[in-house]
């Protein structure tokens, strides 16, 4: 996948089939759109293109209201990995600013999609809107397509168990600790990518090697405090693991510096100072208070036995 950080960086893209949006989570609805633009691109000898935005528009437009407590399913690094796995050909990451938000839908289409990108076909999700004051929609695009020479297609909404899938719905499930529900909406395991550093001395003294995982982006959504079954991947190795999340808060009282993710991998313990990917399968319990280290170790043995029995 080629990545461009502005329209000025663009090189030639043959017969572009284009979609736009934040695509936070790269969930089942997003994948339906990507699969469609990939197929259309292949049929026309072209390439698929996603135009996305960073930071998230709500963070810029409503920093003290809707954007203040908005936590994202994916960091930029995670989103890029998921889009690559989905088979996208080209990603254009537009820096979202207040000035960019003032661009009218007609200027966005004419100046960027047509004159810069030379889009041949545009695919949008159900009820998608864009441009200044979200004035652009499917009908508007369809009319302009007749004038500028591009086709437009709308993808129907996706649902899981009769619930319309959205990034908002997935965020709510994750913030409630409902990992399996979130994974069903995502159509993949919720993930965290971070750097591993040596864990607590207490567990090390119990002959248990653990690692803390540091998170780069403060707006990254982290599940609530508790113990989770995950698969940890690093340096080409993969192993089941337990993650203990502590001191996670949302809202105005969130202290990102106090957040702690400690990982107990069952195999391949030497991942210090390496990038690690955590794929969450299930929350297995809330945090407990232990009277002594023996109780702690016994509980970790129980946790490990439980996670070992899970299939993921």
Map the helices and strands.
Elements: E1 2-4, E2 16-20, H1 28-44, E3 47-54, H2 57-61, H3 76-85, E4 90-95, H4 98-101, H5 105-114, E5 121-125, H6 138-148, E6 151-155, E7 159-160, E8 163-164, H7 167-175, H8 179-186, E9 191-198, H9 201-205, E10 211-214, E11 226-234, E12 237-246, E13 260-265, E14 275-285, H10 293-309
Parallel strand pairs: 1-4, 2-3, 2-5, 3-4, 5-6
Antiparallel strand pairs: 7-8, 9-10, 9-14, 10-13, 11-12, 11-14, 12-13
Task: Characterize the structure shown.
Strands 1-4-3-2-5-6 form a six-stranded parallel sheet, with helices on both faces. The model has no long low-confidence stretch (mean pLDDT 90). 31% of the residues lie in helices and 27% in strands. The relative contact order is 0.13. It is elongated and about 75 Å long. It is α/β, with parallel strands linked by helices and 312 residues long. The two termini are 28 Å apart. The chain has two domains: 2-164, HUPs (Rossmann fold, 3-Layer(aba) Sandwich), CATH 3.40.50; 189-309, Riboflavin kinase-like (Elongation Factor Tu (Ef-tu), domain 3, Beta Barrel), CATH 2.40.30.30. The chain contains ten helices and 14 strands. The chain has helices at 28-44, 57-61, 76-85, 98-101, 105-114, 138-148, 167-175, 179-186, 201-205, 293-309; strands at 2-4, 16-20, 47-54, 90-95, 121-125, 151-155, 159-160, 163-164, 191-198, 211-214, 226-234, 237-246, 260-265, 275-285.
């Amino acid at each position: 996948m080629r990545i461009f950080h502005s329209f000025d960086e663009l090189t030639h893209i043959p017969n572009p089939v284009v979609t736009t949006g934040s695509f936070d989570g790269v969930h089942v609805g997003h994948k339906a759109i990507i699969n469609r633009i990939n197929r259309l691109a292949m049929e026309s000898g072209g390439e698929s293109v996603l135009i996305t935005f960073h930071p998230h528009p709500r963070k810029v437009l409503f920093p003290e209201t809707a954007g203040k407590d908005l936590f994202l399913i994916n960091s930029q690094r995670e989103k890029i990995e998921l889009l690559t796995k989905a088979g996208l050909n080209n990603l254009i990451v537009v820096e979202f600013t207040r000035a960019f938000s003032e661009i009218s839908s007609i200027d966005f289409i004419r100046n960027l999609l047509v004159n810069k990108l030379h889009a041949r076909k545009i695919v949008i999700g159900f009820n998608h809107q864009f441009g200044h004051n979200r004035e652009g929609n499917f009908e508007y695009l369809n009319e302009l397509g007749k004038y500028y020479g591009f086709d437009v297609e709308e993808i129907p909404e996706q649902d899981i168990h009769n619930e319309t899938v959205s990034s908002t719905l997935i965020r709510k499930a994750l913030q409630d600790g409902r990992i399996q529900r979130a994974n069903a909406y995502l159509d993949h395991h919720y993930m965290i990518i971070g750097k591993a550093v040596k864990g607590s001395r207490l567990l090390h003294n119990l002959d248990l090697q653990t690692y803390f995982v540091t998170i780069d982006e403060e707006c990254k959504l982290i599940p609530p405090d508790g113990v989770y079954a995950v698969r940890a991947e690093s340096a080409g190795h993969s192993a089941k693991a337990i993650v203990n999340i502590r001191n996670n808060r949302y809202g105005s009282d969130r202290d990102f510096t106090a957040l702690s993710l400690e990982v107990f991998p069952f195999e391949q313990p030497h991942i210090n100072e390496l990038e690690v990917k955590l794929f969450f399968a299930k929350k297995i319990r809330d945090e407990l208070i232990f009277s002594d280290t023996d109780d702690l170790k016994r509980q970790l043995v129980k946790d490990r036995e439980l996670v070992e029995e899970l299939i993921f």
